[in-house]
Design a protein that fits this description.
- The protein is an alpha+beta fold.
- It has helices at about 60-80, 85-95, 100-110, 115-120, 125-170, and strands at about 10-20, 25-40, 50-55.
- The chain has a 3-stranded antiparallel β-sheet with strand order 1-2-3, with no helix packed on it.
- Helix 3 packs parallel to helix 5 (about 125-170).
- The model has no long low-confidence stretch (mean pLDDT about 90).
Length: about 170
Amino acid sequence: GGDDMYQVGTQAEILRYVTAPDGLHHIVCQGESRFRVVEFLDGYPFLAARVETIDAEKPTGADIEARVGLVRDRAAEIFELLPQVPKELANAIRNIDEAGLLADVMANYIDLEPKVKQEILETIDVRERLDKVLQHLLHRIEVLKLSREINEQAQESISQRQREHMLREQ
């Protein structure tokens, strides 16, 4: 029912519908705009709602440019820490000029819980949205760096034990 739904969502265009060999269905969508539920409608055999589109603001200014630059820099840092990230994604992020779109794309690609992604989606003010995304990017970078450091320490410890074992064997 309506109580189970979020009040803010994304209007999207379906780009592709695929049925996988295992019978699962996948839809590839492209977000078009945000909307807010005005009311849920009765009398339909499915959940229906009257919605209003939330106009996307396109703020400009030095503070927005600075935040966009920081988000791009942190994204590049994450891409360096994650070797499996396609180069095309890094290039695509570098070429996004619109601040709100950059925040939305990065929020989509950061490993976040759905509840946190929804909170970012519901943040209409672009400056605030960039700040939230930047905060999550910084946290993710810290986690990735610590993971890498722990992995390197573990590898060193294993190598040391292997050397000791070989010396004992000899």
